[in-house]
Amino acid sequence: MAETEMILFDVDGVILSEERYFDASALTVWELISSPNYLGLAPETYTPAPDEAVIRRIRKQVFDNDRVLHLVKTRGINANWDMVYLTFSVQLLSFLGTLAETDEQAVRTYLGGQVDRETLQQIGRQLAQLNIRPNYEKFVAAFEATEVKKQQLLTHLNVIAEQETGVPTNIFSRNSALWDVCQRAFQEWYLGNDKLEQPAVDPGKRGFLTDEIPIVAPEKLKFVFQSLKDKGITLGLGTGRPEVETIEPLKALGILSFFETNRIVTAKDVLVAERRFPEQAPLSKPQPFTFVYGSIGKDRDHHEVIHTPLPLKNADKLLIVGDSPADLYAARSAGARVAIVLTGLEGQNAREHFEQLGADYILNDVTEVAEIV
After folding, report:
1. pTM of the predicted model as reported, rounded to 2 decimal places
2. CB 363 within 8 A of CB 341
3. Per-position b or e across 309-340, b if 16+ CB within 10 A of its CB
4. What does the DSSP assignment read for 217-250?
5. What 3 state SS string does 259-311 have?
6. pLDDT tens digit string along 139-158?
7. Distance CA 373, CA 216 (A)
8. Cα 57 versus chain centre, distance
9. N or C end of the chain: which has fewer CB within 10 A?
């Protein structure tokens, strides 16, 4: 085995806990269904400032006691934006299925074009007359009937749409107005109004950015990262987090400086590349773009990154450290070795699954990386 020259780390489930991300994802789905800014099906229950007890209840309901999270994670979806889009879309299609029973033409109109926030409000006004409420248990049932994985889950929504409504459509994909609505709503919950780049749809959210929880004590992380750098190993990040959500908490923990700026790839980089080359979307994990970009450096043009031959040259000198199947799939596509840490959603229960997937290393936590290089 070649000597390790570079390590790219995922952030969520590896360095930082995913719990607040899951909370923000559940609250986003809840808002999209309840708030008058979107569907508005339960405006009397909605608040931009729920207390901790309400957050716990909402996450339990929306993610069906985390069964939703388990399914999307094991199928290779790692981005919270995609989780929100999938979870909300299944509910929306269930609602439209009920509406189609009395107004099929309206449903054909909605599924014949892009669904933006104004469209959701229009749909909501019609649904309000039907006294519809969400059924979050439908999510797992909708996807258990198929073996689709990774980003195919997003386009499979088109199949679910026809099953629910009888109306064929192709509007569900990573490049859709509804995905953008979900992404923006999530950012409001996670960042809070003070960190947003554009005005909030619903002011009043304080955000979760200041509530980040490191999986391992910061002093232990510093010791591990310094020991790796002392061995001459280049350290970088390949994460589905947006840039500010990556930089700010790692800076606060005092560990950002261990990673080379040119090797820190975030969701912002992926979005920019997808907007430049929409025909290549999606580029987020489990696609290899994030790790390829980090390995060859962010001074390279996106076109060069997208068309870099795989497996990467000297890929055996590159180690990816992640916690999810999406990380493993992306690393495998790049040709890199992969170390999985059992500090993600499933914890130690994930060991057998990653053994079956053929991970090169399975570690209890990120501190053990120093022992394998």
Report:
1. 0.81
2. yes
3. eebbeebbbbbbbbbbbbbbbbbbbbbbbbbb
4. -HHHHHHHHHHHHHTT-EEEEE-SS-HHHHHHHH
5. CCHHHEECHHHHHHHHHHCHHHCCCCCCCCHHHHHHHHCCCCCHHHHHCCCCC
6. 999 999 899 988 899 999 99
7. 19
8. 21
9. N
